[in-house]
C-alpha cells in the first residue's frame, strides 16, 4: 500500500494593498516621530497614512512594535544606500560620504534615541538591522583606510557620534527647520576625515562597543 504524499501548502503572501498600507503607516510614523517625538498619538499616524485605526493595530499591536519597525526600516535603507554606493563606484570613501548624507536624510540620529530602556534592545529584528549597519560602515572605513583615503585614527564610534551631534536635534525639537544647515556641516566633518590627517586626535578611536558601554 502506498502512503499518500502530504500536500504542501504555501504560506499565503500578503496582498499588495496590505503591503502598501504597512509601508504608508511606517512612512507616516517616521515623519511624525521625527516632527513630534515618539508619543505622537497612533490615531494621528493613521490619519496621515490614510488608513483606519484598525489597520494600524492589525500591523503593529503596540507603539513599541511600530517604533521598532520605523527604526529598523531606516537603518536598513541607510545600509542599502551605502552598499549600493560602494557597488556602483568602488570608491570606499565616496560610499562612506554618501552613507553620512543619506543617514541625515533618513533622520536616523533623531529616531535611534527613541529605543530607550522601555524597548527590547535585544529584539532579533533590531539586532539584525543594527549589525548590518555596523558591518557595512566598518567595511567602508576599513577599505577607505586601506586605500589611504581615510585617516587611521578614527573608528566607527567616532563617525556615529559626530553624525548624531551634527545631523539632527532630538526628535520633536525643530528637526525639520534645521535641515538647511545639516549637509553643510556634515560635509565639513567628512572633509576632516580625509587622509592625510591635518592634526593628531586626542584619545583613542571609538568603537561601537565603547558607545554601548558609555
UniProtKB/TrEMBL annotation:
Residues 41-60 bind DNA. Transmembrane segments: none annotated. The keyword DNA-binding applies. Residues 19-78 form the HTH tetR-type domain. Keywords: Coiled coil, DNA-binding, Transcription, Transcription regulation. InterPro entries: Homeodomain-like_sf, HTH-type_TetR-like_transc_reg, HTH_TetR, Tet_transcr_reg_TetR-rel_C_sf, TetR_SbtR-like_C. Residues 123-150 form a coiled coil. It comes from the Bacteria. SUPFAM superfamilies: Homeodomain-like, Tetracyclin repressor-like, C-terminal domain. PANTHER family: HTH-TYPE TRANSCRIPTIONAL REGULATOR BETI, HTH-TYPE TRANSCRIPTIONAL REGULATOR RUTR. This is TetR/AcrR family transcriptional regulator.
Amino acid at each position: 500500500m502506498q502512503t499518500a504524499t502530504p500536500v504542501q501548502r504555501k504560506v499565503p503572501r500578503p496582498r499588495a494593498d496590505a503591503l502598501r498600507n504597512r509601508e504608508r503607516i511606517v512612512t507616516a510614523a517616521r515623519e511624525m516621530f521625527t516632527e513630534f517625538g515618539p508619543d505622537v498619538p497612533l490615531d494621528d499616524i493613521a490619519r496621515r497614512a490614510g488608513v483606519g485605526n484598525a489597520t494600524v493595530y492589525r500591523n503593529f499591536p503596540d507603539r513599541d512594535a511600530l517604533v521598532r519597525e520605523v527604526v529598523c526600516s531606516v537603518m536598513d535603507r541607510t545600509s542599502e544606500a551605502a552598499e549600493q554606493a560602494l557597488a556602483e563606484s568602488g570608491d570606499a570613501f565616496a560610499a562612506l560620504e554618501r552613507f553620512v548624507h543619506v543617514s541625515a536624510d533618513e533622520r536616523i540620529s533623531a529616531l535611534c534615541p527613541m529605543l530607550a530602556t522601555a524597548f527590547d534592545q535585544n529584539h532579533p529584528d533590531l539586532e539584525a538591522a543594527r549589525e548590518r549597519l555596523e558591518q557595512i560602515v566598518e567595511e567602508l572605513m576599513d577599505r577607505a583606510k586601506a586605500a589611504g583615503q581615510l585617516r587611521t585614527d578614527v573608528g566607527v564610534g567616532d563617525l556615529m557620534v559626530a553624525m548624531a551631534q551634527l545631523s539632527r536635534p532630538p526628535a520633536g525639537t525643530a528637526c525639520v527647520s534645521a535641515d538647511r544647515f545639516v549637509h553643510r556641516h556634515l560635509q565639513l566633518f567628512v572633509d576632516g576625515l580625509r587622509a592625510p590627517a591635518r592634526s593628531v586626535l586626542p584619545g583613542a578611536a571609538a568603537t561601537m562597543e565603547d558607545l554601548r558601554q558609555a
